[in-house]
Amino acid sequence: MAHALHYRGQVLAASGLDITAGLWLIVSPSVMSFHVRAIWMNNIILGILIGIIAFYRFMTITPATAGLSWVNVVLGIWVLASPWALGFANIHPAMAHNVALGIIVIILACWSAMASISDRTSDIKRDSTINDDLA
Question: 126 vs 28, 118, 130, CA distance in Å?
Fold first, then answer.
């Protein structure tokens, strides 16, 4: 039986906002005038990865692609930790930006993944109820 996504709107909203966060990561070094190469490279690469993964999840909403949202959770953790890992924590605007955006990406990616998990659980419960009725 195909899994009907009851939480499709939630996945679309969360993944769509994650795409926006990825796009902002790409342009933010220029817009916010960060002059450190590590910030530029980190944010552009992560923005591209987060955006592509969220876009794919947005376009192919199935329980099987929920794992992609968990990949974005990991990337969000890296965005959050990158000021200390790459040594730009002393640049307060860049550090605060990446911490805030990392938290946003983590929350949105968790929301997208959990919506599919909730849906899968409801499908399993519905299937077992149908089987109990048939027995």
Answer: 45, 12, 6
Of 53, 15, 125, 37, residue with least CA distance to 87: 37
For 35-59, what is the HEC assignment?
CCHHHHHHHHHHHHHHHHHHHHHHH
Q: What is the pLDDT of residues 92-131, one digit of tens each?
A: 999 999 999 999 999 999 999 988 775 555 555 545 555 5
- Residue 97, CA distances (Å) to 19, 21, 59, 102, 121 in order: 17, 12, 28, 8, 36
Q: Looking at residue 125, what is its pLDDT?
A: 52
CA atoms within 13 A on the CB side of 21: 29
pTM for the complete prediction?
A: 0.82
Q: Which residue has the tokens 């990158």?
A: 82
**Structure tokens of 69?**
């949202």
Q: How many CB atoms lie within 10 A of CB 76?
A: 24
Q: pLDDT band at residue 8, thresholds of 50, 70 and 90?
A: confident
